[in-house]
Amino acid sequence: MSADQSGVRVMLVDNEPERATMVCDALTSEGYEVVGQRSSTRGLVAAVAQEEPDVVIIDMDSPDRDTLESMSALNEHAPRPVVFFASDDSDSHTIQQAVNAGVSAYIVDGLEQHRVKPIVEVAVARFEAFQSLRHQLEETRTALEERKDIERAKGLVMKQNNCSEDEAFHSMRKLAMDRNQKLSEVARQLIEVLGGAEGAGSPEAMDD
Amino acid sequence: MTDWMHGTESSETIRLGFIPLLDAAPLIMAQEAGFFAEEGLDVSLYRQPSWSSLRDRVGVGMLDGAQMLGPMALAINMGLGAPPCPVISPMVLSRNGNAITARRALYEQLTSTGFDLSEPSEAACALARVVASSDEPIRLGIVYAWSTHYLQLLDWLASAGLSPGSGLELVTVPPPEMMTALAYGSVDLACVGEPWNSLMEYHGLGQILATGCQVWQNAPEKVLGVRRDWAQANPEKLRALMRALVRCCRWLDDPDNRELVHRILVHPHYLGSAIEPLGDQGESLFHPRVQQHFFRQSANFPWLSQAQWLLSRMRLRNQGEQLLETPDLDSIFRPDLYRKVAESLSLDAPIMDYKDEGEHRQPFVVEGVRGQVEVAPDALIATAGQD
């Protein structure tokens, strides 16, 4: 990163501590000074006055964005939303990407556009990375839970029908195909039916 | 509801944003009471955490439209605070809905001045008296600069020759936190939309001092704002959307439906349990003094004269004064579209787009397309030497 980024002060407002750390690390390694990283916007107005950041990066879903915007309408030195008015198409793309990623940015004292844009881009990249990380985690968690459900249902069917593991699995898979449902859904239903009341019936008894 | 990843939408889905306030009721109830479905519409509602987020999401096209503050519908077209996005407002969703609530301690000081607090300009004079004799500045809580509330608050102050700065300090606080701010004294006077004034009264934290309706009678509080490109690509859908909303607004004005409205709005997806007290003890969900309404007396008609009025007040308060060009108001507020929708519902609508704002203290009648149409009064508080 070019040397002119040093001395640019960025305030980060994000209530996702892990994401905040990611953004902070990335900005710091690009040579920015991250000031007053805040987990919440409480006292934000005072913090902006005290820390005098050049740029505020704030989670788009923070309800206190209106507070920041009102400051700018009421006070000349307050943060103003980053607006890339230029005709350059890549600028409107940057804004769209930022909104999609959940990043909003404010400048305090008219930092030039070409210096703001890389900051926004760093934040957007980290927000997106965090989002996909969270999705992966959720997917893994769901997959694990589904597998556990299937195992448990299989055990219940084995006990119920007095059959082998293979047979239990096949009867469950057939049920899933007949009903056009996912195996994990069938498993959950079986747990509901068989798990609570032992001896309530075979899987076939669930058919309407 | 703000989860953008739920993936149940098709290209037919209309995506609309709302802010959890009582005047989101037209959108919420049109969804929940089936008005959208009856018009064959598939609508997804997205609750937004702030006006800024709502505006940005409409701006980049993540939302096709939203419940908007009257001044916001102008600001978004003018590019104030964000890149300009052409948005049209073919109908008003609600009238009135704001109030100015004084913290208990301040209210007692105001009472002791001897002014008649039921008169808004006298209440402002009472405030001027308290400000003059106070060592500490009085803190005024506002929620957003480009809002009807803010413009109404400044007009109310001006009625007693007051303005922020001289012993009055403006503090911006998001609506859900206004109650806490008032309770702990970081705000002495709150100007906010409903249900927050009612709730501050209910919890004994403050007293409504003046209502938005007393400052600007029956102002266009929230409007429907949709992206112009969406409206042009979907003219039939827009008409169906407006039909559903007009029908829902009429339904909302019927007090018999209020219990159901409360039961739906209290849902965590909408306003949440904060509004639970408003349904208890036979209290009305809608505060009688605020005079919030949705349909009666041509409430939904988007008067161009009111767009002009909003713009003139924004300019007076230094909003957008740096822009040289006057925005093309008749490409934003669209009474022509409203008239067509009213026609298709066998409702009448005024034939003119302009009326003399501020000249009517009583309900009055104008020529309609079919016959005569009743219109709500539009008196404005007198501001001292600012016009």
UniProtKB/TrEMBL annotation, chain A:
SUPFAM superfamilies from the UniProt entry: CheY-like (SSF52172)
GO function terms (MF aspect)? RNA binding
> Is Coiled coil included in the keywords of this UniProt record?
yes
Pfam (any one):
ANTAR
Q: Which residues form a coiled coil?
A: 127-154
Q: Which UniProt keywords apply?
A: Coiled coil, Phosphoprotein
* Keyword Lipoprotein among record annotations: no
Q: What Gene3D superfamilies is this protein classified in?
A: 3.40.50.2300, Winged helix-like DNA-binding domain superfamily/Winged helix DNA-binding domain
Residues modified as 4-aspartylphosphate are D59
- Boundaries of each Response regulatory domain copy? 9-124
- Domain ANTAR, by residue range, is 130-191
**Biological process GO annotation list?**
phosphorelay signal transduction system
Know the name of this protein? ANTAR domain-containing protein
Species of provenance: Vreelandella halophila
UniProtKB/TrEMBL annotation, chain B:
Q: What SUPFAM superfamilies does the entry give? A: Periplasmic binding protein-like II (SSF53850)
Compartment(s) of residence: Endomembrane system
**InterPro entries tied to this protein:** NrtA/CpmA_ABC-bd_dom
Q: What does UniProt give as GO cellular component?
A: endomembrane system
**Pfam families documented for this protein:** NMT1_2
Name the domain of life: Bacteria
Keyword list, A-Z: Cell inner membrane, Cell membrane, Membrane, Transport
Q: What is this protein called?
A: Nitrate transporter
What is the originating organism of this protein? Vreelandella halophila
- Origin organism lineage: Bacteria, Pseudomonadati, Pseudomonadota, Gammaproteobacteria, Oceanospirillales
